[in-house]
Amino acid sequence: MAILYGVLKAISSGIVRSVPFYVTGVILAILLIIQCTLLVGAVKAKGFAEPVQILLNQQLEGQQGVIGAKDSQAILDSIIDNFPIIGTYIDVADFSGHDISEMGQLMYDTMTDYLNTYIWHRVLWIIGIIVVACVIAVCFEKKEYVPISSEDEINIYPEY
Asked: What are phi and psi of 66, to 5 degrees?
């Protein structure tokens, strides 16, 4: 927000003195807080991908067979019980047709791919919100009023 203020003030000090700038600033702050919170949560959830893989490899060690949709959802539900933050971002799993011994790696790959995409979406939303706020602030720029002092001469009729 401070960098945005500095850039807009460098463009014109009239921008940062307008009512639309203040309204846009408040809305921008709220939207950025929401997007940054979601981004940080996704980064935190992504940090649990490796422990989930280790947990699944331990729990499913020695089991053989092909996994079904209900079984993969049950595995995800048990992961969410152990790591609740993951349930905020991933709530459905369908790894049917895969071997149960691959489940740990599949879950790791799926989580990291999905959360990477989610994180990049948050970053793009943040950039988009900032750009829109800048455009709105620039479009509603308050024109500077420079009073004329009595010492200044106003020449209405220029000499030729």
From this structure: -100, 135
